Amino acid sequence: MSTVTLEKNGHIGILTIDRPKALNALNSEVLKDLGAAVDAVEADEDIYVAIITGAGEKSFVAGADIAEMKDYDVAGGEAFGLRGNDVFLKVENMTKPVIAAINGFALGGGNELAMSCDIRLASEKAKFGQPEVGLGITPGFGGTQRLPRIVGVAKAMELILTAKTIKADEAARIGLVSYVYPAEELMDKALELANAIAAQAQVAVRQSKKCIRQGIHLDMASAVALEAKYFGECFATEDQKDAMNAFVNKEKLNGFKNK
Ligand code: DAK
Questions:
Q1: Positions of the chain with pLDDT lower than 50, given as ranges
Q2: Residue 223, domain extent
Q3: Best label site of 122, 196, 210, 243, fewest CB within 10 Å?
Q4: Do 104 and 220 fall within a single domain?
Q5: Is the CB of 171 within 6 Å of ligand 1?
Q6: Is 64 touching ligand 1 by the criterion CB < 6 Å?
Q7: Number of domains, the chain
Q8: What is the pLDDT of residue 78?
């Protein structure tokens, strides 16, 4: 039995982290299953967009598994950190866009997982934080790097150094999540957003994601050169020809071929 399920809804792949006895905390097994589920989404040509959520009504992911981590030595801690970082980088660099539907606690590794997704939506019940310094450790799954890139250095410092938990409306105010919805609407809204992406030309969607993900690490001159390269490659697609011909001929394009 996997701790991560993959369900398909049209062209959307829904990954659910399902370890209810520990509020979906990330132990080695969950990390392994999540990595395998991401590989399955990547390999499935019929899936255009992924959604990651947590099972149950209380928790998205309540962090890395404290019971598993507590007896690590230095080498064990580093190995666990590397394993988690490999999986989160795999999420971040998936060719297909990934939406986090944050249904409850997103603490420590849970918030870090959400931050490795491309877009974050939250339920009104969601709570966010990096409680690590209260446990005698630093954030270890990318939190010190992704949080300042998303909310700015000073806000990331405040959240990480105080270990405080914030509610969904505050997370939206600081830009950690894009929208907050009543709990019962969250998955419908995530699917609506995913389907809006799935309705576009998928080669262009993936080229755009690559541009943003890779360009953010470059200086502006290199980043716009990269953008020009990916832009140029779109002109090898049938979708570009079809969509632009339809526009100039004032015709309605009937869907994309995604090639
Ligand atoms: N790990 C293990 N078990 C957890 C857990 C966690 N993170 N969070 C909750 N659980 C378990 C609880 O132990 C409890 O189990 P039983 O006692 O029933 O067996 C069950 O889930 C239900 O939790 P509670 O009874 O505590 O439920 P409450 O509603 O009262 O409280 C809570 C919910 C989320 C506020 C509370 O459970 C809580 O504070 N959980 C811990 C949250 C937390 O501190 N998370 C951050 C973990 S640290 C690194 C790699 C990674 C990381 C750091 C470094 N390197 C290797 C460098 C990442 C670190 C973290 O994520």
A1: none
A2: 202-248
A3: 196
A4: no
A5: no
A6: yes
A7: 2
A8: 87
